[in-house]
Amino acid sequence: MRVLIVDDDDQILRALRINLAARGYEVSIARSGPEALVVAGSTTPDLVVLDLGLPGIGGLDVIAGLRGWTEVPILVVSGRSDSADKVDALDAGADDYVTKPFAIDELLARIRALTRRAPHEAEAPVVVFGPVTVDLARRTVSRADDAGTPHPLALTPTEWKVLELLLRNPDRLVTRQQMLTTVWGPAYTTEGGYLRLYLAQLRKKLEPEPSRPRYLLTEPGMGYRFSPG
Questions:
Q1: Is the distance from CB of 72 to CB of 45 less than 8 angstroms?
Q2: What backbone torsions phi and psi does residue 200 show, to the nearest 5 degrees?
Q3: Are residues 84 and 155 in the same domain?
Q4: Would you say the pTM of this structure is higher than 0.85?
């Protein structure tokens, strides 16, 4: 079970990391809003523990960014105790809210409850669409010819990152900002040309008709979507 902890308080990060790791959780950390989106995209956590007051962008914007492409459970852990803050976080897409200071036993119970309700997908599935087979565990891609014989395809590291992000979120909109932040970093959120270039390259390699894509779709003005068909 992978947990992403997002907080700029080193004491809280250390305490949560120790307690969760001792109970068998795989823990990743982020200390800012932009870093949270990058780490979430690269590690695909099963749960996000999120503070609201973060450097870069605030927790509510992180929730909005995550909800653009994933339904991962989000547990807000914040020093803001006002009911309006709780309502705002839950309305933005958070699943639960714990106020600081908190008892670690209560927090662990909330985490267990959320992860029990979360759908558990395969860690690294094999994705098949049209003549293409992508093994996310082995990081391999093949395309079958007309006789059904698979042939390996070579992808660049960046092409792989773009493709993996889309395939791990089938039928979900992945926003341009989320893709740029995850693949290239927070400094590249306005470089939409990068996405157009790499999607065009992927379509040439993977789509039956690259000019009329069936699987790697553009959502005009918003982002991209993988449609398994």
A1: yes
A2: -65, -40
A3: no
A4: no
